[in-house]
Design a protein that fits this description.
Elements lengths: L20 H9 L4 H16 L6 E6 L3 H10 L3 E7 L5 H5 L21 H7 L5 E4 L11 H7 L1 H9 L6 E4 L3
Helix pairs in contact: 2-3, 3-5, 5-7
């Protein structure tokens, strides 16, 4: 990601894979998914920029959003979370015949245990904003689809007395 991102794949693959597709496959062979490695990096950055443990607001955009969500589920010092243009859920990816740029955030076997909306629910009562979520093909999702997918998180925030801290904003 960022300045160290590898060269994009050849033109036939650019629509479906991010530039890190080779690294993603290598990470699977090593049993160390890229998402997990990036979560570790983010937690190290949090510790470096906030050594006193006051807490930080972290924003994840696109492919970085699931990384931020996982890190926040592990680290309460990520006190506020904003996710922009994040894939709606991994369940949505499995139901989509041709997903776009999802390889980078694959966690083998995760759906047997959890999905992204489950992690969102686990952040209760911390402020969480999900803006302009995308389906697995990269298209914006409707308000009803977003609310349906995150129903468990909505319920968790309501029952935790923090309904106003969960903001779900569909794209335009």
């Amino acid at each position: 990601m960022g300045e160290t991102e590898p060269e994009p794949p050849h033109k036939g693959l650019q629509k479906h894979f991010r530039a890190d597709w080779k690294e993603a496959y290598l990470s699977f062979a090593l049993c160390r998914p890229l998402l997990g490695q990036r979560v570790g990096d983010l937690l190290a950055v949090r510790a470096a920029i906030d050594p006193e443990g006051r807490g930080v607001h972290v924003v994840g955009v696109g492919a970085a959003a699931p990384v931020v969500l996982h890190a926040a589920a592990l680290e309460p010092l990520l006190r506020e979370v904003t996710l922009e243009r994040m894939v709606l859920s991994w369940a949505n990816v499995t139901r989509t015949p041709l997903s776009m740029n999802q390889l980078t955030n694959v966690v083998p076997g995760a759906l047997a245990v959890y999905d992204l909306p489950d992690l969102a629910a686990s952040l209760t009562p911390r402020p969480l904003t999900i803006r302009d979520a995308k389906d697995a093909s990269g298209a914006p999702v409707s308000s009803s689809m977003l609310e349906e997918s995150y129903a468990e998180a909505i319920s968790a925030y309501r029952s935790g007395g923090a309904a106003e801290r969960l903001r779900l904003t569909p794209g335009e």
